[in-house]
Write a structure and sequence with these properties.
The chain is mainly α and 265 residues long. The protein has helices at residues 2-11, 13-27, 36-56, 69-92, 94-97, 99-104, 111-137, 149-173, 176-190, 203-209, 213-227, 237-264. It is globular.
């Protein structure tokens, strides 16, 4: 089954690449600066958080006497959380947004999740390149530990893609899924140690926050960018296992409902 899907996707690689290119271009169509906004938006965010938290608010991480530490901490979390948010948000409506395409053309439906994933990866690669450039210029390059970054991203991509596939299929049949998940994401964000370090929470709350599958991954990103520390791979086993489970469940749900989805669109 996996081999057959891989062959189908490979035979439509031109369609996938063309769709990714068109979506990227369409995002900045009729704008004077065009694709330059892809660079300016994340760059502005990094600069704003650096100036606001390190210079204006003088925010400091507990036990760390470094003006830039909190800025690096919060950017590490926000930029990587943004990848999860973009994949899941686009996956929620990927079948609904392409209803006409699904009805008129014959192509492997699995191409749509791949297009969403690749588009998100292109945007994230640009953002992360800027952030790494900022770390290099500010003298906070994480050293050899940066080699662990691709593995962390792969774990996150598998988790986000599996979750997105499940949500995308369910949202075709139950439109409340999209509304509910939008609310759930807001709670999920604040229950993930992104804008606050886990150490500031009471011990009982910390144990609950550790149940959040994104907690271990966020901590790994933050430790890598802040201290140049290699991830504790054992702490990533929960999100890796959940990512595998969601990917399998999403694939099974997609295969069993792909025919019915066209009638619901």
């Amino acid at each position: 089954m996996l081999l057959a899907v891989s062959r189908s996707v490979w035979s439509y690689r031109g369609f996938i690449a063309g769709s990714v290119k068109r979506e990227f271009q369409a995002r900045y169509r009729n704008s004077m600066l065009g694709a330059l906004w892809t660079v300016l938006n994340p760059l502005a965010m990094i600069l704003v958080y650096t100036v606001i938290f390190s210079q204006v608010m003088r925010a400091r991480l507990p036990g760390v006497d470094d003006g830039l530490a909190y800025s690096v901490f919060i950017c590490s979390g926000l930029l990587t959380w943004g990848l999860l948010g973009e994949i899941t948000a686009r996956s929620l409506t990927m079948f609904l947004d392409n209803a006409n395409l699904l009805k008129k053309l014959s192509f492997p439906r699995i191409c749509l999740p791949l297009i969403v994933l690749l588009n998100s990866c292109v945007n994230f690669a640009i953002i992360m390149a800027l952030f790494l450039g900022f770390l290099l210029v500010s003298g906070r390059w994480p050293g050899m530990a940066v080699l662990a970054l691709p593995l962390l991203v792969l774990i996150q991509l598998m988790f986000a893609a599996g979750l997105g596939m499940v949500l995308g299929v369910l949202n075709v049949f139950f439109r409340d899924v999209g509304q509910f998940f939008g609310i759930a994401m807001q709670f999920w964000f604040w229950l993930t140690p992104i804008v606050y370090p886990l150490s500031v929470l009471p011990a009982k709350i910390q144990s609950l926050v550790y149940l959040n599958p994104m907690t271990g991954l966020m901590h790994a990103y933050q430790e890598l960018f802040l201290k140049g520390a290699w991830p504790d791979w054992s702490s990533l086993l929960p999100i890796f296992a959940l990512g595998v489970l969601l990917s399998v469940a999403g694939g099974a749900l997609f295969r069993s409902r792909s025919g019915e989805m066209v009638d619901e669109l």
